[in-house]
Amino acid sequence: MENDTHSAPRPLAFDPAARDLGVLVGFDGSQQSIQALHYGAMEAQRSGRRLTIVSAYSVPAPVAATIGAVPDKFEAQHSVVAAKALLDEARSYLQDYPGEVIYRTERGDAAGVLVDLSTVAELAVVGARGRGGFVGRLLGSVSSALPAHARCPTVVVARQYKITDAAGPTRFEPVPDERPVIVGIDRSPHSRIAALQAAEQALNRGTVLHLLMALPTLEGWLDWYPGLDTPDQRIIDQRRLQLEESLAAEVAWLGRHYPSLTITAAVKPGDPVAQLSRSTHEAQLTVVGTRGRSGFTGVLLGSVSRGVLLRAAGPVMIVPELQDERLSDQPDLIR
């Protein structure tokens, strides 16, 4: 593990029963936010949760060279009207949606608004790009990255996401899909929290959960091959067998909490970002934690989760470090 002077963030309290907003969708009228809106509506239908649509607006600070140049109140009113017009677009799109929907306009930076509301949401959903609003700065600085600061899991919907051509209420019914839910696991408690969230998703979707552990072949080998100066292929093969044994323990642990769920697992040599990015082509949903076992504790969005988001061809769920009592019987860490 790399050394870091920052303290690790405390696990976040997460009681779904107290998360009144249910599935929270950031909407700015862009094509990508429409994809997020559709994805969020289907997710809410699948899980029986409330759907909350939010449009954020900002009012420029009153900084001017002269009093006459100070923005008047009509500028603020215009921003509010524009935000409400966006919500009308969302209402029109969801006119045949059969579930409960809440529409909200909120003043402030879009990412900041969603972070604040994520404290009372079970899931946040955003598009991969926006109009400089909800996800325009997703992979910028840590202070503006929603998945790094959200207090609930966040799904980022890739541009390749296809919206069904069905009409009426059936448009929002979940479509049967045999593809698995894939989760990246590295034997850390944080990745196990992500695995628990992924298991819930797989169960709701009636599909298989696949645990993927990537074994670095060169870069990062000091963490994965402890006590060795120079790894060779024999050592790599031996380490892979050891990790496959530990992965079997992860499967058994998840199986105790989800006995009706089919769980598969594999150790694949290669870069974790590359392996997980490839999984986004073949999975309904790819799930990762915000940080992994070799990440700095002070960095809220790790290099793997950020790299997967940049390369994703399908929806990706980023899971923060949540409190979960099921970690009390997690497998022992194996070095």
Shape: elongated
Q: How much beta, percentage-wise?
A: 15-25%
- Uncertain runs are 1-7, 132-144, 294-300
User: Largest beta sheet: what is the strand line-up?
Assistant: 3-2-1-4-5-10-9-6-7-8
CATH homologous group name of the largest domain: HUPs
Head-to-tail CA distance between termini: 11 Å
* Average pLDDT over all residues: 82
Fill in the CATH topology of the largest domain.
Rossmann fold
Helix content estimate: 25-40%
SSE topology sketch:
Elements: E1 23-26, H1 31-47, E2 51-57, H2 73-93, E3 101-107, H3 110-117, E4 123-127, H4 146-149, E5 154-157, E6 181-184, H5 189-205, E7 209-215, H6 221-224, H7 233-257, E8 263-269, H8 272-279, E9 285-289, H9 303-311, E10 316-319
Parallel strand pairs: 1-2, 1-4, 2-3, 4-5, 6-7, 6-9, 7-8, 9-10
Antiparallel strand pairs: 5-10
Helix pairs in contact: 8-9
Structural descriptors:
single chain, 335 residues, Rossmann fold, 2 domains, ten-stranded mixed beta sheet, 34% helix, 16% strand
Describe the structure.
- This protein is α/β, with parallel strands linked by helices.
- The chain has 2 domains: 165 residues, 3-Layer(aba) Sandwich (Rossmann fold), CATH 3.40.50; 159 residues, HUPs (Rossmann fold, 3-Layer(aba) Sandwich).
- The protein has a 10-stranded mixed β-sheet with strand order 3-2-1-4-5-10-9-6-7-8, with helices on both faces.
- The radius of gyration is 21 Å and the shape is elongated.
- The N terminus is likely disordered.
